[in-house]
Amino acid sequence: MSTTGMDVFDKTLQATHIWLDEIMNDIGPDRALAWKVLSTVLQKLRDRLPIELAAHLGAQLPLLVRGAYYDKFDPTKMPADWHTAEQFLDEVREGLSGSRSIGSRVAVDAVFGVLDRHLSEGQIDKVYRSMPKSIRGLWVEPEA
Questions:
Q1: Which of 1, 16, 35, 111 stands the most exposed, by the fewest C-beta atoms within 10 Å?
Q2: Among the residues of the chain, which ranges form H helices?
Q3: pTM of the full structure
Q4: d(C-alpha 64, C-alpha 93), whole Å
Q5: Enclosing domain of residue 34
Q6: Distance from CA of residue 143 to its chain's centroid?
Q7: How many domains does the chain have?
Q8: Does residue 66 lie within any of the structural domains?
Q9: Would you put residue 126 in left (φ > 0), alpha (ψ -120 to 50) or beta?
Q10: In the chain, beta strands by DSSP E
Q11: Peptide bond into 29 cis (omega under 30)
C-alpha cells in the first residue's frame, strides 16, 4: 500500500530510510543525527568535486537525499581548495557543529559506506579518482 499516493515519493522515502538506517548502524539510533550526517558529508563531498562530476553523483541519489545534497549549492566555489584528509574532516566537523557530538571520521565512514553499497561502482570510482590522494585515503579504494 502506498504511503503518499505517489510511487516516486514512496520510493524515495523508502530508499532514504534505508540509507538512514545504515548510517544509524554506525553512529547510533538517532535518525535526526543520521540525516545531519548524511547531508553534511554529501555536501562536503559535492563541494570538493569538479562541478560536472558533482552533478553526475547527484543524479544517482534518491530524490529526497538529492535535495539535501544540493542545499546551499554554490557552483562558483567548486571544487573547494581542500587537499588533505584533515582539511576535509575539519569541514565535516564544522558542518556537524551544533549536533550531538560525533567524530567526523565516523560520519565520513558511515556515509561513504552507504554510497559504496547503493551507487554504481563506476560512479564511485570516478568520485574516488577525482579526489586528492590524501582525501582518497578516507575511502576504501573501489575494486577495479
A1: 1
A2: 7-27, 31-48, 51-59, 63-70, 85-96, 104-118, 121-130, 133-136
A3: 0.92
A4: 23
A5: 7-136
A6: 20
A7: 1
A8: yes
A9: alpha
A10: none
A11: no
Nearest one of 83, 79, 94 to 46, comparing CA atoms: 79
Which triple of cell numbers denotes residue 127?
568520485
Tens-place pLDDT, residues 16-74: 999 999 999 999 999 999 999 999 999 999 999 999 999 999 999 999 999 999 999 99
Task: Give CA–CA dist 34/142, Å, rounded.
Answer: 24
Closest CA to 102 of 41, 47, 11: 41
What's the chain's average pLDDT? 92
Q: Which amino acid is at 10?
A: D
Q: Nearest Cα to 123, choosing from 65, 45, 68, 71?
A: 45
Q: What single-letter amino acid sits at 55?
A: A
The torsion region of residue 32 among left (phi > 0), alpha (psi -120 to 50) and beta comes to alpha
3-class state of residue 83 by DSSP = coil
Name every residue whose Cβ is closer than 8 Å to that of residue 60 and which is 6 or more positions away in sequence.
119, 120, 123
